[in-house]
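Many introductory courses stop at the sequence. We go one step further.
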Amino acid sequence: MPFVLELLLDESAAARVRTIWEDLAAAGLPHHGLELETAPHVTIAVFEDLDPIEARSAFASFAAEETPEPITLYNPAAFPTAEGVLFLAPVVTRGLLELHAGFHERFAALDQPVGEYFFPGNWVPHVTMGLGLDSEQLARGLAVLMAADLPIHGHLDRLELLEFQLGEDGRPAMPLELHHRLRLGQ
């Protein structure tokens, strides 16, 4: 089963994102974050297969060496793909790019394929606000995001490894299994 490695938003910033998720749901838009009960996050890698027990010490070492990364969610946007992804993009900082690139350099030895969207040079950091939306839903979702209280300032302060199954539509589906949640800098 696939695995996803995420950087989680601190609790204050995450609460603000959840409020917007609820606003989107109130506007009649589906939201996988609410449905799957995921934490607001920025994905840094997707692995097709991984031994989470073997990877734990390496991920723990990486998390301990990193410090929480400041983040400002500022830009409502959508990817121009069939997946129908609505998101908030952070201001891209040198620190955010270095954290991402450092992870991929360090874990290249895992010899595991990661989703092409997550390789350095391809990665567009974002917090997903909606997934599987059609063009009309994307337009309505963008209107909700444009009316939201932005920017959201916070920190990426934890690293999380989740295992998930893909649904028939190719999107993450229940159940999600949390393997590791590690605080950065500890």
